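Design review, sub-item: ligand-bound model
Attendees: FS, YL, KQ
YL presented the inputs for the 5-O-phosphono-beta-D-ribofuranosylamine complex:
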Amino acid sequence: MLRVGVLVSGGGTNLQAILDAVDDGTITNARVELVVSNNANAYALERAKKHGIEALCISPKDYESREEFNQDLLAKIDAYHLDLLVLAGYLVKVPECMIAAYRGRIINIHPSLIPSFCGVGYYGLKVHEAALARGVKITGATVHIVDEGMDSGPILLQKAVEVLEGDTPEILQRRVMEQAEWKILPQAIDRIANKKA
Ligand code: GRF
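KQ shared the predicted structure:
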């Protein structure tokens, strides 16, 4: 049974997609044991609690230094003996000590077809604003392994989504979530849990 931790900062729709996929059998041999957010008001924490999952708020603001936060975040997560960490809209820089400790076992969902519209400054709506500004006809989402870079680790899964006439960043974001993110993130976890990745 793959022990999964999910790191979040916002609404948690990707977390919800994971929880629903475990419940409906789309994901097998895996269990979400922990949800961690840097944002006490993240609705994702509510989603975890409603599901009876341990939900922690660990914020850099509560520490004297970033280094102290990094060490405590790693120590708290280590206590759950997790096999896989999933970044689902997690907006805090993942500590290098954590990337080293969980080498190859941290995955992230990014709302574009990497290498387009990724890297520093490309997160949330900004990704879709850039895609619309460039005039791409196809965008999508990517699940990749997290390394020390920004959105630079090996790609595991991608799914393309059409950009439509009249799309606003918000409309496009929703379509990318519905048609891509909420499908390939659970699919990636299931593959890892069943050693098909
Ligand atoms: C999603 O758009 C995801 O692609 C990005 O952050 C957002 C998280 O949304 N990484 P949610 O918190 O899962 O609803």
